Amino acid sequence: MHSLLRTTTASAALVAALTLSPVALLAQDATGDDAATPDDTAQDDATTQPMAEEGTQTAAAGEPAQPTAEMQQVLDQLAELGADPIGTLPPEEQRQEPTPADAVMAVMEEQGIETPPELAAIATRDLTYPAADGSEQPLRVYTPEGEGPFPLIVYYHGGGWVIADIDTYDASARALAAGAQAVVVSVEYRHAPENPFPAAHEDANAAYAWIIENSGTLNADAERLAVAGESAGGNLAMNVAINARDAQLIQPDHMLLVYPVAGNDMETPSYQTYADAQPLSRDAMMWFVEHVFTDPSQTADPRINLVDRTDLAGLPPATVINAQIDPLASEGEALAEALTAQGVDVQQMTYPGVTHEFFGMGAVVPEAKEATDMASFALRTVFEARDPATAEAPANEVTDVEATAAEGDDTAVEGGLEPVDGAVQQENAAPAAEAVEGDAAPAEQ
């Protein structure tokens, strides 16, 4: 059993690798009053220039962006599989629909792409944990090759708290286990509408406590710890970190937040510009709200409306990854600004030409591979900084972590970073350089 109490500290190498300068973003208020229009927030070249002026958004730049050829191929395949848009069916039927993960698998089969051996080599085992209501909920443990104990990542899948499961998100968890060389524990939780808000949030906290207490049996070291999640799961991951801080539990060393649900304003620039985006649209988000909350006013709860919180100080460093063609892009960028403004070290990247769900598509979408590499680099940097062998290095000896932070693995430039293949990256963020060979297998967010 592992104690839940620990205080997190950051090394100089960690700060050098993960700290970035504040960048102005326009956060929308919860009521939507005085909401900016896409024209108000457009920038001349959203895919190549970092955000720097007040009111600038990378998420919406006038005319909607078009998907890359690879991203469009996945969307076309999803349509060919007969998937109905999210929000057009009752929840129990929507859960049976083909997913973007299925579409990626179909593209891989069509093109003869096989899962890279280092991802296929990740061992898995299925367990359960006691959820907040006393029921047993599934966990899937992903373990890389080697002896361990390995660093630990607690991962929460997406699906609007209504659809999807740990099977749908297998590729994301698998890619992080291989890329970060960590045990990844993918958490299932109770879904709405059968279990409305805040059931999933309560289960997320219960799972976090159970995983840490049982980390030794998982071949994991809870002294090197991160939380991660996509979409609704990104929201859960950040709330788990907040609860750990407030309850004085063992705190994660890093938060990986992939296009997180972070606000309740559906009039942000990206909501306006990408209202009809697929696979996630504004109508789909409204459908999730309808089924998750017993009253729409609950979306103002600080566990949902993260962008307006004023108590974010003391949270661990964060990596925030967004997709350009996504209603949630603006709030993800605004969350990065809110964290930075309150003293949290943040790196944020908005990838152009890709949609919500792209993160686990590294097998067929190059931007997804870049995003998982970026996330893996950030996580490895944190874990190496927490490693006793690294921490005890002589003062005059440059560690691998410090050298990587200083050199940027050939992608850094003096004073910041060049965009990764056109992605908009906040200044001074750590690059995704030490890539895992091969692409990630498919996953839905």
Explain this structure.
With 445 residues, the protein is of the alpha/beta class. The protein is 33% helix and 15% strand. The protein has 15 helices and eleven strands. The protein has helices spanning 12-18, 38-41, 69-80, 91-94, 100-111, 117-120, 170-180, 199-213, 232-246, 269-273, 282-292, 329-341, 366-386, 388-391, 400-407; strands spanning 123-130, 136-143, 150-156, 183-187, 220-230, 254-258, 318-325, 346-355, 412-413, 416-417, 424-425. The strands form two sheets. A nine-stranded mixed sheet has the order 1-2-4-3-5-6-7-8-11, sandwiched between helices. It has a two-stranded antiparallel ribbon with strand order 9-10. Strand 3 (150-156), helix 7 (170-180) and strand 4 (183-187) form a beta-alpha-beta unit. Helix 1 runs antiparallel to helix 13 (366-386), helix 1 runs parallel beside helix 15 (400-407) and helix 7 (170-180) crosses helix 13 (366-386). The longest helix is centred in the last third of the chain and has 21 residues, at 366-386. It is globular. The two termini are 32 Å apart. 57% of the residues are buried. Residues 1-61, 393-424 and 426-445 have low confidence and may be disordered.
Task: Reconstruct the topology from this structure.
Elements: H1 12-18, H2 38-41, H3 69-80, H4 91-94, H5 100-111, H6 117-120, E1 123-130, E2 136-143, E3 150-156, H7 170-180, E4 183-187, H8 199-213, E5 220-230, H9 232-246, E6 254-258, H10 269-273, H11 282-292, E7 318-325, H12 329-341, E8 346-355, H13 366-386, H14 388-391, H15 400-407, E9 412-413, E10 416-417, E11 424-425
Parallel strand pairs: 3-4, 3-5, 5-6, 6-7, 7-8
Antiparallel strand pairs: 1-2, 2-4, 8-11, 9-10
